[in-house]
Design a protein that fits this description.
The structure is a homotetramer.
Chain A (H helix, E strand, L loop, with lengths): L1 H11 L7 E2 L15 E6 L2 E6 L5 E2 L4 H13 L1 H7 L29 H8 L7 H15 L6 E2 L1 H10 L1 H12 L7 H12 L1 E3 L1 H12 L14 H14 L5 H7 L4 E3 L4 E6 L3 E6 L2 E2 L6 H14 L5
Antiparallel strand pairs in A: 1-10, 2-3, 2-9, 4-6, 5-6, 7-8, 8-9
Helix pairs in contact in A: 1-12, 2-3, 2-4, 2-10, 4-7, 5-8, 6-8, 10-11
């Protein structure tokens, strides 16, 4: 397996040249597009190759954290009563939402507007507490007490996040955010700026792969049904508007972020963390998808 | 003429029952739907009937003020380089704007998103100065030094204006607003809360009817070409997404507001101010449109 | 006036280089983009310059013929009960119509889908009779008994008109077309292939300018109120999604066609026919609009 | 298992009252909304309950037949080069397709417009041969040589299918259909009118569940990779715009039709055929989804 991982990484390294580093936040454009890393966590041991230790910001993969904690806090039914789970066919930062109201069915938790709403469902008496709970949960599910926010990226997100601000005020206008919009956005921007590496993502994925259970400690981190729910949502909408294509070529639940990360989990088998910041036009890591495709085919990982 | 005006008002009074008072801002819902007034200003004298002295908030008719002052400050070409003049087929507070960018062609100065952008084009070193200049201009074009903001409506707009906030952050995201979004929105909300009556609107309309000239004082308030430009814009998009229908049944440049007001001008002939707060589904005064239709037909006012 | 017309044409000739001849029908792409002609018809005499005698196909200007005859046959209210008169903000051959039904308010008679519906409202027991009545009406309003269909263009339209076919079947699906879709499309395609020159358009425009009356013969070709209605519709939506801009720069009712023609009328004053087949991206004649802009400014033709 | 199936059917019978029989085709509205049947096919034996023998028309489930045969004929890559596999967030008969062209990414093979395009990719020198090949393939994959078209439903589809006609002409306009549109639609309408019962669907599903292999005969009906591809597509978009919700509550690849059928397959385990014609607003069988949800939970069938 270790050899297999290394070979896949080397064979896919050239695809880093086919994408572009995200530029919509100035800080993200500083990433090195040639970096590439992979980490595979299994119950029996871990395998890794390349730049798996390099830190990067989690970006949209934080949407899975919002959804897991909001579902744990409120139950899946409550969450689904407010945001739907249909793929929308829209890009992650779409603004063309239908009037006269923001329909529940149009707000997917894996696109920005839905993720902001779900972030606000994490139980807390203040947004400061909400942030602390999200950090504690992140450290626990990734088994890494050292996790920190990247302050430069956070400042950059906060400064340039006017489209997210627009989306949040639309939610506010539809009574889908309680309390301060700006404070909730601070939590959202901060969590998207969480600094992680491939191992962090692989460990979170391993928990999902084992239906909520940390196989190292035996702890049930999230309820089994929540993990099944997460895997379904990730499969239908985890890779932005490239989710359908990804299902046909890779066939495992996964979530990508514009920082270049992908978290992917094979139910019952393994958790995978990927890093390669050169993105395709949909915002997914080009080399990352290629590595997962080859790995899926060679190890017969597809759930289909 | 005076008799004609009175008769029209009485005949159209019953249409006040066909509409609903605006409710999207709590303060507006306090209006008395049975009120109805009209004021006709001509070079040779004024005519009026009904509740023409009752004050109401100007609301979207302020969009004409933003556009006149922004055009005067920057020239029509500058304004048109940033906001288009095509009817969009969208309701006044639409949010479904096309990505990947806010296209100039989709932003009409007579719908909210365009009006906020145009408001920001009024020259000033601060938003406080911007507001003062707009107030001074309003008092001058309406020949009324007593004009004031309705503080209750302003507070209500500011508190509940989250959709306008969303639109403004979209503009900010496209670099179409400079400086503070919240401060600019304060100017926008305040000007929409300007308290006017039918005479105020009729006098502003008379200036447009005489191509920018105040026929009482001889002063050229806005350039002639700006007045022609305004009349064209009002004709194609002054009555929200009811502008086409209004052109076929009434046929004069006009702008409505959800406070129940309509300002209408007949080039070369007269300025008209209307008040009747019962609105149709597009946000236009039901009885107001009926009065204008009958007046247009009886006086042959249509420009077509 | 004759001298003025000639000078305007020469000064605007260079704009023929700024556009492209229509290519969506193979036959249209054979036009000579350097051709340019103008014809001004007034009660007191006619003026003309350039290629005013060159024949071209009427294309979308036929939409005015459909609307005039359908309104004459059924009354304006009947027509407006089925198709709206709001500018849609869409291009002439848009297909993205809202579900669950084709809303009357979204179907403007000056865009393809609305024009096909209106064509079907022309009273006839067969589509053959419908076509003959439209031809007779065209010859009468243009005072030209020689008018013929361009058979090559007609064949080309029929062969490649699959988008119009799609629009027609949408109408059929909403019960807005009775009888054979293909037969009605034949009428539509044939009438769009009507061969006219600048004088033909100018004479039709002169009838509209005199509110339905042929000033040469004294005949009331269409009712006065229909002519006023037409002028309103042309002003708000006659120049495709460039109508708002045209209103601000030229300010007269007009209809363009992708064959390079523009019919424009100045109420009470004159009818204008334009030909110059180099089009802008919206499908309007570039040099044609420029000639009208200069003419409007020099002769103070704007209705605003 | 047999007992389990019977119990599930009885417990879910009441949900037949929560839906409505399809009415958009007159013939479909004749269905008895109280009928309900289920058939489970496994390698080791079959189980069934209720009205599993009742025939009904396959409707949209035919889309899987088009896609399987087109992929077999041309390869998956060819098919995906013309139609995408992203969920569109649109209802099955949506018409609001984006201009200026029909983007591959907007055309999913599980919605009407994509299915018509894919139907046309089935190799044949004539549409008559195309139809015969589709029938032969259907009989083979369902192991039923008796399969026939329901002539009444076919006639009804053909007569009222103007929206599908519109979609087909849009495809034609984008060069995505070769040859006669009407003939291809005949094939499409006929195949949607294929008369099947629960066993037929279960057997087709069993082939997909065993990755293309008929476990009774040992024959590889479609290539293994095609079956994996089909399961991915069905998971992300097989249940119209209810696919995301279905993935979270049931979690198995499935395709529904407005005739009341659902074909569902559990990779490696079983094929399921469902019939219950009372539909929810998205066009899916209400009681059918409920039966699958209970079955999935009790037998732990979810792939997530």
């Amino acid at each position: 397996m270790q050899h297999c991982i290394e070979e896949i990484l080397e064979n896919c390294r050239r695809y880093t040249l086919d994408g572009e580093v995200a530029s919509y936040i100035p800080e993200l454009s500083k990433a090195n597009r040639e970096e590439i890393g992979i980490y595979v966590a299994t119950e029996d041991g871990d395998f890794f190759a390349g730049d798996w230790e390099k830190p990067f910001t989690i970006q949209s993969i934080a949407k899975t954290i919002f959804l897991m904690l909001a579902a744990k806090d409120n139950g899946i039914d409550f969450v689904k009563a407010h945001v739907g789970v249909e793929a929308t066919g829209k890009s992650f930062n779409a603004i063309d939402y239908a009037e006269p109201l923001l329909l529940r069915e149009h707000i997917n938790p894996m696109v920005n507007i839905g993720a902001i709403a779900v972030c606000g469902m994490v139980k807390a008496v203040s947004n400061e507490e909400r942030f602390q709970r999200l950090m504690t949960f992140s450290r626990r599910i990734m088994e890494n007490d050292e996790l920190q926010i990247d302050e430069e990226v956070y400042a950059s997100e906060k400064k340039t996040g006017n489209k997210n601000r627009a989306l949040a005020y639309l939610l506010k206008n539809s009574d889908m955010i309680y309390g301060s919009v700006e404070e909730l956005l601070d939590v959202y921007f901060a969590m998207c700026s969480l600094k992680v590496n491939c191992r962090d993502l692989a460990r979170m994925a391993l928990v999902l792969a084992h239906h909520g259970k940390n196989v190292h400690t035996g702890e049930q981190v999230i309820p089994e049904e929540d993990a099944v729910f997460m895997n379904a949502v990730l499969t239908t909408s985890g890779m932005y508007d490239g989710s359908g294509e990804f299902a046909t070529t890779v066939g495992i639940p996964a979530k990508s972020g514009v920082g270049g990360g992908i978290m992917a989990d094979c139910p019952g088998r393994m958790g995978i963390g990927i890093y390669s910041p050169a993105l395709d036009k949909k915002g997914n890591s080009v080399a990352g998808i290629r590595m997962l495709e080859v790995l899926s085919k060679s190890q017969k990982l597809s759930i289909f």
